[in-house]
Specification:
single chain; alpha+beta; 6-stranded mixed beta sheet; 7 helices; 18% strand
Length: 259
């Protein structure tokens, strides 16, 4: 009787119908079976997004309330969902093994909050909403460009020059900025002299932080490692950066002494 070895293993897997080990592993683990998107689940998420917007709109200062809230939700939630669905983006969403519905909801929360506070940003920087340019790399049509990159979300032309805005939303009371965002901001400032301000909406605690990313020191004690984010290095936003209570009038950028 001959010894059982790698030659037999390969022949056996070939007889099963697999030409390599990875295909065999996927078969037995069921990882080649892609679950269909549960659109009822997504509909519940969409309803939650609408609830979030309504609750926030009840609390914010009158100067930034959205009066036509149903129209806002239709344009920024329902229409966006339909576009993503039409272009078959949702089934391809994945992040650390999460279901595509959950990745969709996570992305949409940030998208909706960014658009909701555009009016506030126009008051903070004293510009018209139309003068706030969207420059991020998210694309609602092509999965290849539907991704998060280091590039900031918005750009504003002030009398003192251009400024980039990185808009973030926090929903669990954990307020961090990813390292690659800071590195990109420093590169942009070094090459073009354009500063980047992160505006972080901590909706869990009802506060907003303003952080000039290109000024963060490499040796700052706020740099930490988040184990729940696969050991990523992040800049933890100190409480001192939070200067706007979301229930108050938004501050003026000119009073923040960044430049």
């Amino acid at each position: 009787m001959s010894l059982i070895g790698t030659k037999y293993f390969k022949e056996y897997r070939n007889k099963l119908g697999f030409t390599n080990q990875q295909e065999t592993k996927k078969f037995f683990a069921g990882k080649d079976i892609i679950p269909t998107v549960d659109y009822h689940y997504i509909n519940l998420f969409n309803n939650r997004l609408i609830e979030i917007v309504h609750k926030i709109n009840e609390l914010v200062d009158n100067s930034i309330k959205i009066k036509e809230l149903d129209a806002f939700c239709s344009e920024n939630i329902n229409s966006v969902f339909q576009k993503l669905k039409k272009n078959n983006i949702i089934p391809k969403l994945n992040n650390q093994g999460r279901r595509p519905e959950q990745v969709y909801f996570s992305w949409m929360r940030g998208y909706v909050i960014s658009n909701y506070f555009l009016k506030a940003l126009s008051l903070i920087f004293e510009v018209n909403i139309d003068d706030i340019d969207l420059i991020g790399d998210d694309d609602l049509v092509n999965i290849e460009t539907f991704k998060r990159t280091p590039k900031a979300d918005l750009e504003i032309n002030l009398q003192t020059g251009k400024i980039r805005l990185e808009i973030q939303s926090g929903f669990q009371g954990v307020n961090d900025i990813k390292q690659h965002k800071v590195l990109e901001a420093k590169r942009l400032f070094l090459e073009k002299g354009i500063p980047t301000i992160a505006i972080h909406f901590d909706l869990f605690n009802g506060q907003v932080a303003f952080v000039e990313l290109n000024s963060i020191e490499d040796k700052s004690v706020n740099w930490i490692t988040r184990q729940q984010m696969e050991g990523q290095t992040v800049f933890n936003i100190d409480q001192n950066y939070f200067i706007w209570k979301i229930t108050d009038k938004p501050p003026k950028y000119k009073d923040l002494n960044f430049r």
